[in-house]
């Protein structure tokens, strides 16, 4: 009786909360969008299982093995010899689940808002590819198209639709003559939010991925000579949104201390950029400037608005503030390590 009463009370408390959360359009979009990838996950799982038969050949002895064990051993040998071929479907299903999800989430949220779901899904996909597939030495890095990029996919899928919806609500469209076919007019008017999305996401990653320009500034004033040297070497590339020197020179890669601000900084910058554009504090970007243009030139050329430069400087200050406590921890650890070596 007591257990029944507790369960009833929990049900009375939690059911309304669950219903309210379940009906929240952004959470519904995430849930529905992730379901887009379910068939691909299932198919990919089958091929992953097929590529990894459950047998250890080191413990396999042909002379004492029965028919089943011989079959398993043959399967294992075939899987090892053809591993790349067998896992190709896995790599192109589960391996790109982030890419599939960003389309699905944007599609679902746009559907909730009753705006063009397919176009929003495609715009989100393009933005996700721009953010998650850096090109290095002519090669595209595909590591973040899968589960590694899922969190970014969720953020981009939601934000892109909200930005496009802003254009719909504010009726920001090109006025075209009535003689222009509706399909052509729709196509032309999708270019404006697309360019705005691309430009906004570029502004949000000042100093490259992770918004590392603030970290570079801190390093230039560091007590550790090694950090000062790396900071001075990284400042010019950082101004041009190239942060490989600091990513691999500090390094940020596999650095648990800097992982937190590296993830937080671009998200905060992106949200601030979105709201600043929404309330009219800065100009909306409509020109996609060449890659590796210095950030202040990017900011101005994107919309011909000097306020964008001021806003970028503000974002850099915020980046410094976010990175500061984490950098000081790393700096103190480095100082102690140097003292111990001496």
TrEMBL record:
<dbReference type="GO" id="GO:0008982">
    <property type="term" value="F:protein-N(PI)-phosphohistidine-sugar phosphotransferase activity"/>
</dbReference>
<protein>
    <submittedName>
        <fullName>PTS sugar transporter subunit IIC</fullName>
    </submittedName>
</protein>
<feature type="transmembrane region" description="Helical">
    <location>
        <begin position="29"/>
        <end position="51"/>
    </location>
</feature>
<keyword id="KW-0472">Membrane</keyword>
<feature type="transmembrane region" description="Helical">
    <location>
        <begin position="92"/>
        <end position="110"/>
    </location>
</feature>
<keyword id="KW-1003">Cell membrane</keyword>
<feature type="transmembrane region" description="Helical">
    <location>
        <begin position="147"/>
        <end position="167"/>
    </location>
</feature>
<dbReference type="InterPro" id="IPR051088">
    <property type="entry name" value="PTS_Sugar-EIIC/EIIB"/>
</dbReference>
<keyword id="KW-1133">Transmembrane helix</keyword>
<dbReference type="GO" id="GO:0005886">
    <property type="term" value="C:plasma membrane"/>
</dbReference>
<dbReference type="InterPro" id="IPR003352">
    <property type="entry name" value="PTS_EIIC"/>
</dbReference>
<feature type="transmembrane region" description="Helical">
    <location>
        <begin position="306"/>
        <end position="326"/>
    </location>
</feature>
<feature type="transmembrane region" description="Helical">
    <location>
        <begin position="281"/>
        <end position="300"/>
    </location>
</feature>
<feature type="domain" description="PTS EIIC type-3">
    <location>
        <begin position="10"/>
        <end position="326"/>
    </location>
</feature>
<dbReference type="Pfam" id="PF02378">
    <property type="entry name" value="PTS_EIIC"/>
</dbReference>
<dbReference type="GO" id="GO:0009401">
    <property type="term" value="P:phosphoenolpyruvate-dependent sugar phosphotransferase system"/>
</dbReference>
<feature type="transmembrane region" description="Helical">
    <location>
        <begin position="258"/>
        <end position="276"/>
    </location>
</feature>
<feature type="transmembrane region" description="Helical">
    <location>
        <begin position="202"/>
        <end position="221"/>
    </location>
</feature>
<dbReference type="InterPro" id="IPR004501">
    <property type="entry name" value="PTS_EIIC_3"/>
</dbReference>
<keyword id="KW-0762">Sugar transport</keyword>
<dbReference type="GO" id="GO:1902815">
    <property type="term" value="P:N,N'-diacetylchitobiose import"/>
</dbReference>
<feature type="transmembrane region" description="Helical">
    <location>
        <begin position="179"/>
        <end position="196"/>
    </location>
</feature>
<keyword id="KW-0812">Transmembrane</keyword>
<keyword id="KW-0813">Transport</keyword>
